[in-house]
Design goal:
Strand order of the largest sheet: 16-15-17-18-24-23-22-20
Strand content: 25-35%
Oligomer: single chain
Largest sheet: 8 strands, mixed
Shape: elongated
Length: about 625
């Protein structure tokens, strides 16, 4: 088949043949001299005579080679291609995996994602005449990067703007999007370019359309920190010794137990160190030596007294994936929840709260001014706040003025609690089916309060979280057998955890989740570790590292996000072939089928070979 040219304007370079031939026809004017003999000069004179103007050119192999060289170079510049035979236009949907495991580096030093982009560009570049392609990014949700187009340069540029995310991908959903886009196309092919780390693609719906599977993964060499949990580890003696200091908000070293899980996803035994570093000068606080066999995992505990700051735990070993080798912990916020029991002294309730780690409890019959700012949670027993404090976290138990508090006038006896909002964190593991109440009122005049606990579709315990946490318990807890049940301490411990969650930033956030801010109104922007900025509430954290919260009046807060995703850290390709009903689609890297093929590279090689021949002939003559 005859080739066509992508750049036919380059044929203008054939005009270089004219000056080349002219150079061989020109000769410098010489003067006559008498010499004994011209025998030795005859060969040189033959070449020079060919340069005389208007003389017939003599046969000269070097000139012929130079003419051929210019012709070949010109043809190469026109970018000749041998076109594929296409009976009708072919449409391609190119799915490129953008999951976290695609950041892994292969033996070549290139990431899987860059290899995938190169494969997609090669595939697009070899689409036959009249063919079109679209590009779909497979992330948490599929995204159409570029609709169908025959412009190969435009499609390649759209691929250059992609990057792998730090989350898992949904290739099955991306495949469904591709099938929808190709539904009414005459000839169609879906190309899935991935590292084979999504087992979901082995459960794709059966289809008759052509499917290509390109796996860009080979290595499984990866170690990872896959989980971290933090607990307070102080003793009762330490608590009593430092309680007053903690109430004043003074920064002191606090004992913590930091549990770290490490996994070896590689196929070889690995030995490495887990290192806890302080925020000042990256100073080493503690280090643990870890030895793991293939596929093994183990847990390790750091016991340390830590001052406020953002610490990091690093896995000191090189592997193919970097994002799971470092985790960050934020100890900048005061870790203790300061609780005030206001009203009647309640020894049992005080004891229950003191048993909760990270809870500092005080009591006062009449709270002094400023208590709303000093305490994180105020529990009013047989009393209530004198006025509304926006943002105050409070539990009001058996308020003295039922009508003003929005309670029913009539009192009831409850022997059967019919409904509990088990979805709310405060009610986690709280079972009230065995609780009986001698007398109680119902929450009737507080429409803003949701029913946390209900009796016959009426609110028994109400909760409102519009501004701070507010819980209304309309009965005297000692007019019930609730204090005798295990659900009693669990409920109040859950409340403390909820207040800590709302009042303080967490120790860390996992990539893909939101930062839970103490007050979203204080902050305006979130700046990621790579420098990308987004408004608070508009974007999830999509990369590990230290994120900066910028707010009003120069308020700045740093908060870490960690990558804990065992599925993505296990970078070994688990899918070797795709099953589509009875069909099996095997890995097929590179291009296939009849596609356009550029041949200018071969022409350039021939031209360079002719240059070598010309150089040899010229110097042999000398």
């Amino acid at each position: 088949m005859f080739p066509s040219f992508l750049n036919p304007s380059a044929l203008l370079f054939l005009g270089l043949l004219a000056p080349l031939i002219l150079l061989y026809m020109l000769k410098i004017q010489r003067h006559n001299r008498i010499v004994p003999s011209t025998a030795l000069w005859r060969n040189a004179v033959n070449d020079l005579e060919a340069n005389m103007p208007f003389q017939k050119l003599r046969r000269n192999i070097i000139l012929i080679l130079q003419i051929i060289f210019i012709i070949l170079l010109t043809v190469a510049l026109t970018q000749p291609v041998i076109k594929a035979t296409v009976s009708e236009p072919h449409y391609y949907a190119v799915i490129i995996d953008a999951s976290a495991s695609m950041q892994a580096k292969e033996a070549s030093g290139k990431t899987r994602f860059s290899i995938a982009v190169d494969s997609a560009k090669e595939l697009i570049n070899n689409i036959g005449e009249g063919g079109q392609a679209c590009i779909i990014e497979a992330g948490v949700a599929p995204r159409i990067v570029h609709s169908f187009s025959a412009d190969k340069k435009l499609l390649a540029n759209s691929l250059d703007g992609l990057y792998p995310h730090c989350t898992s991908s949904d290739l099955k959903e991306a495949f469904s999007v591709a099938s929808t886009l190709l539904e009414k196309k005459p000839k169609k092919t879906t190309c899935i370019i991935t590292d084979g780390n999504d087992a979901g693609i082995n459960n794709l719906p059966a289809t008759d359309e052509e499917v290509r599977y390109i796996c860009v993964a080979e290595t499984s060499d990866n170690l990872a920190i896959t989980n971290i949990s933090v607990e307070f580890s102080y003793t009762e003696e330490w608590y009593e010794q430092n309680r007053n200091v903690l109430m004043e908000g003074v920064e002191i070293p606090v004992p913590y137990d930091i549990f770290v899980q490490a996994d070896n996803f590689s196929a070889e035994h690995r030995q490495f160190y887990l290192t806890l570093r302080a925020p000042w000068n990256n100073e080493i606080v503690d280090s643990k030596e870890v030895s793991l066999g293939p596929g093994e995992h183990s847990g390790h505990i750091f016991n340390a007294e830590l001052l406020p700051g953002i610490y990091n735990i690093s896995l000191e070993e090189k592997d193919a994936l970097d994002i799971d080798n470092t985790a960050y912990l934020d100890f900048e916020q005061p870790p203790f929840v300061k609780v005030l029991i206001a009203g009647e002294d309640d020894a049992l309730l005080k004891k229950v709260l003191q048993a909760k780690k990270g809870c500092v409890v005080s009591s006062a019959k009449s709270p002094q001014a400023g208590y709303a700012e000093k305490y994180d949670l105020v529990i009013f027993v047989d009393s209530k706040p004198e006025k509304e404090f926006p943002g105050l976290n409070s539990i009001i138990i058996n308020p003295p003025d039922p009508k003003e508090s929005g309670l029913s006038e009539e009192e009831f006896q409850v022997s059967n609690i019919t409904a509990v909002d088990r979805e709310h964190p405060v009610m986690k593991f709280v079972d009230l089916t065995d609780v009986h109440i001698l007398k109680t009122r119902l929450v009737t005049g507080r429409p803003e309060m949701k029913g946390l606990v209900s009796v016959n579709d009426s609110k028994l315990v109400g909760i409102n979280e519009d501004e701070g946490l507010r819980i209304l318990i309309p009965f005297n807890i000692y007019d019930s057998d609730w204090p005798l049940r295990s659900s009693f301490p669990v409920f109040f411990h859950n409340v403390v955890d909820r207040v800590r969650e709302k009042h303080c930033l967490q120790f860390f956030t996992t990539v893909g989740n939101e930062i839970k801010l103490p007050s979203a109104k204080q902050f305006i922007h979130i700046v990621s570790p790579s420098g990308r900025s987004a408004q608070v509430g508009e974007a999830l954290l999509d990369e590990p590292g230290i994120h900066t919260l910028e707010g009003n009046a120069g308020l700045i807060k740093r908060h870490p996000a960690n990558f804990f995703n065992a599925r993505e850290s296990n970078i070994a390709p688990v899918v070797k072939e795709i099953k589509l009903g009875a069909r099996v689609i095997r890995n097929s890297p590179g291009t296939s089928g009849k596609t356009n093929r550029e041949i200018w590279q071969f022409i350039v090689l021939i031209a360079l070979g002719l240059t070598s021949v010309e150089w040899y002939l010229y110097h042999r003559r000398e």
